[in-house]
Specification:
It is a single chain. The protein is an alpha+beta fold. The protein has one domain: Ubiquitin-like (UB roll), CATH 3.10.20.30. Helix content is 21%, strand content 30%. The protein is built from two helices and five strands; from the N terminus they run βαβαβββ. The longest helix is centred in the middle third of the chain and has 11 residues, at 30-40. It is globular. The protein starts with a strand and ends in a 6-residue tail after the last strand.
């Protein structure tokens, strides 16, 4: 198990009621982490619509997570 900080923005704040949380998890990738979080919360977006950043750098959903990482799931952006 490792501790991961998840920062929430946009719809994720509304979906979770939080700005961030620190989670003890056995998830080894952002994909596994998102699946774990999805079992707790009803998210507005599926995994296929998201980008992920780990420690302020865009990464792939299969990137290996490490203890102490900071993860942000980034929803689609639209504007006009």
């Amino acid at each position: 198990m490792m501790k991961i900080k998840i920062n929430y923005f946009a719809n994720f704040c509304s979906d979770t009621g939080k700005d961030f949380e620190i989670l003890e998890t056995a998830a080894s990738t952002p994909q596994e982490l998102y699946q774990e979080l999805s079992s707790r919360y009803t998210f507005s977006f599926g995994l296929e619509a998201l980008q992920v950043a780990i420690n302020c750098e865009y990464q792939t959903m299969d990137k290996q997570l490490k203890d102490g990482d900071i993860v942000v799931f980034i929803p689609p952006v639209s504007g006009g």
